[in-house]
């Protein structure tokens, strides 16, 4: 037997179970369908939704990513390819390496006769920047690759403007590339190198150097073309020694590799 009670007959205190069903336990038929929007608190028991103890993929509906507001998603779920510290996720959901990669970024913590860095992997072009705070004595900035200081490993040809004079210097067989010809300075400098780095060919080196001289002293500027004669190895190390004195603390070296 069931009893029908109209809303205007209900007491202010609410309907009791026995007013709707004569059984002591709620029956499924006693409970009307409820829209999900009406269920705003509490937790469904797993058994109410699934008859098994383990959730299956079919029991979990698709979720809009805007609903995932906490936690961390495994990178393997984000796209195809290898997800690691050297790749980024493109808009087409693939993990790729960037065209350019920073290989070295080091700053001298104390005065030193040389500043350098090394890396692994092969890059067909290198962009190398040395930011110098000056030298402890007047000297020439050199560059060497892979620790090679052989007497006939390099060649170079420099042209520059010192004060109002155009000067040039060259050496076709040397133990380093001289970046300012035979001109010495203790002034701060910025040195930019662009290096062709094919493993089986000689390495072409183009450089630009500018000195930061004191006001009322004309600054010096140099352009240089050089060669490292090695045809067996890619460049994986660069060093900037000085002909005299030390680089001052705070000098910074940055190397960018291009695949």
Q: Can you walk through the features of this model?
A:
This protein is an all-beta fold and about 260 residues long. It folds into 2 domains: about 1-80, no CATH class; about 100-259, Jelly Rolls (Sandwich). About 0% of the residues lie in helices and about 35% in strands. The chain has 1 helix and 14 strands. The strands form 3 sheets. It has an 8-stranded antiparallel β-sheet, with no helix packed on it. A 4-stranded antiparallel β-sheet has the order 4-13-6-9, with no helix packed on it. A hairpin with a 6-residue loop joins strand 10 and strand 11 (about 205-210). The radius of gyration is 37 Å and the shape is elongated. Mean pLDDT is about 85; it is low at about 5-10.
Taken in chain order, the helices and strands follow as HEEEEEEEEEEEEEE
Mean pLDDT: 84
Structural class: mainly beta
**Biggest sheet details:** 8 strands, antiparallel
Structure characteristics:
259 residues; mainly beta; Jelly Rolls; 2 domains; eight-stranded antiparallel β-sheet; four-stranded antiparallel β-sheet; 1 helix; 14 strands; 2% helix
What's the structural blueprint in terms of helices and strands?
Elements: H1 46-49, E1 88-89, E2 95-96, E3 100-107, E4 114-118, E5 125-132, E6 142-145, E7 154-162, E8 165-174, E9 177-178, E10 189-196, E11 203-211, E12 221-228, E13 237-241, E14 252-258
Antiparallel strand pairs: 1-2, 3-14, 4-13, 5-10, 5-14, 6-9, 6-13, 7-8, 7-12, 10-11, 11-12
Task: Give a brief rundown of this model.
A hairpin with a 6-residue loop joins strand 10 (189-196) and strand 11 (203-211). The chain has one helix at residues 46-49; strands spanning 88-89, 95-96, 100-107, 114-118, 125-132, 142-145, 154-162, 165-174, 177-178, 189-196, 203-211, 221-228, 237-241, 252-258. With 259 residues, the protein is an all-beta fold.
């Amino acid at each position: 037997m069931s009893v029908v009670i109209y809303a205007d007959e209900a007491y202010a205190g609410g309907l009791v179970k026995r007013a709707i069903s004569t059984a002591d336990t709620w029956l499924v038929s006693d409970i009307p369908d409820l829209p999900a929007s009406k269920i705003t608190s509490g937790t469904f028991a797993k058994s109410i939704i699934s008859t098994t103890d383990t959730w299956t993929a079919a029991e979990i509906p698709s979720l809009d990513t805007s609903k995932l507001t906490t936690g961390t998603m495994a990178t393997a779920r984000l796209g195809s390819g290898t997800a690691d510290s050297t790749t980024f996720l493109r808009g087409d959901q693939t993990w790729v390496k960037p065209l350019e990669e920073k290989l070295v970024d080091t700053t001298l913590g104390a005065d030193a006769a040389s500043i350098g860095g090394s890396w692994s992997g092969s890059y067909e072009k290198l962009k190398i920047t040395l930011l110098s705070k000056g030298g402890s004595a007047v000297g020439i900035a050199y560059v060497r690759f892979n620790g090679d200081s052989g007497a006939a490993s390099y060649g170079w040809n420099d042209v520059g403007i010192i004060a109002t004079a155009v000067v040039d210097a060259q050496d076709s067989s040397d133990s380093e590339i001289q970046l300012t010809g035979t001109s010495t300075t203790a002034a701060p400098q910025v040195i930019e190198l662009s290096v062709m780095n094919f493993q089986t060919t000689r390495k072409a080196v183009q450089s630009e150097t500018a000195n930061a001289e004191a006001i009322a002293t004309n600054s010096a500027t140099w352009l240089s073309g050089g060669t490292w004669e090695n045809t067996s190895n890619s460049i994986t190390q660069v060093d900037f020694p000085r002909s005299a004195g030390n680089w001052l603390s705070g000098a910074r070296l940055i190397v960018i590799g291009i695949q």
